[in-house]
Amino acid sequence: MVRDTGFPHADAENDFLRMRRRQVLSRLSRWLRREPDDVNIILPFDEVVAALGRLGEKRLGLQVIPIDSIVGSVDKTRDFDRLFRPTSGRVRERWERLALAQRRGEAIPPIDVYRIGELHFVIDGHHRVSVAHALGLRTIDAYVTEIRTRLSPTGIHDRGDLLIKDYRRIFLERVPLTGEARAGISVTDPWEYAELGEAVEAWGFRLMQQEATFLDRPTVAARWYAEEFRPVVEMLRQAGLIDTQTEAEAYLWVTGERYRLIREHRWDDEVIEALQAQRRPR
């Protein structure tokens, strides 16, 4: 709860001290839970864009945006944590001036942000966002520039999530799937996107050798999904070889095991029996 004693200067000072206490307690709590160091770092705009793939931008002008949608920054600032709480006393003087002006009802200039999906990244206005959090405001005025990206930012919560987005973006450049096929391929370990990309390219090379013709990446991707991936996944389901993993993860596992056990790139009853035996408890 935001306290109002009727003395704006004292209230502004208390606002800052309250936010600093929360930040310190949050840091201590993360240390006790042994959470990764990057969990509470403001998401860096450039890393998010690099992971998602930038297509273009469009100025949307002045808008009212939710405070909770502001998750990142263009600057690699260490002055504020993920919830825009001050991480030191270095910003105190400027912070308290803004808090005092806000409490007095003075006009506060809009902030500037980039928008990716429903997420916002501060270009200018970190202190204003921090003060808005402290005062319990739910919205803030902002000049918005929308950034269009190849991949959706859905699922990004911290810097660790960027890695899997980046590997997926690279995979889809190598294997340009579309529509249902694009949406249906997913793995939880970022490195498996690289392994899957290699597997598709190898499959496409064998296909071109077999048909003695050149096939571009979109054609290889579409044919791999229709002629290899879907039939294999259906066969694995019928054989009970898919359980908790994604279809792509199951495909990667069985194709690797198939070659290790059979040393051939074929699918038949012998292969399935060998894979089933491999999965049985010993």
Description:
The chain is α/β, with parallel strands linked by helices and 282 residues long. It has two domains: 8-149, Conserved hypothetical protein from pyrococcus furiosus pfu- 392566-001, ParB domain (Alpha-Beta Complex), CATH 3.90.1530.10; 175-279, no CATH class. Helices cover 52% and strands 15% of the residues. It has ten helices and six strands. It has helices spanning 8-33, 45-52, 92-103, 126-134, 159-174, 179-184, 190-211, 217-238, 247-262, 269-279; strands at residues 43-44, 54-66, 70-73, 111-116, 119-124, 139-149. The protein has a six-stranded mixed β-sheet with strand order 1-3-5-4-6-2, with helices on both faces. A hairpin with a 2-residue loop joins strand 4 and strand 5. Helix 5 runs parallel beside helix 7 (190-211). The longest helix has 26 residues, at 8-33. The N and C termini lie far apart (59 Å). The model has no long low-confidence stretch (mean pLDDT 84).
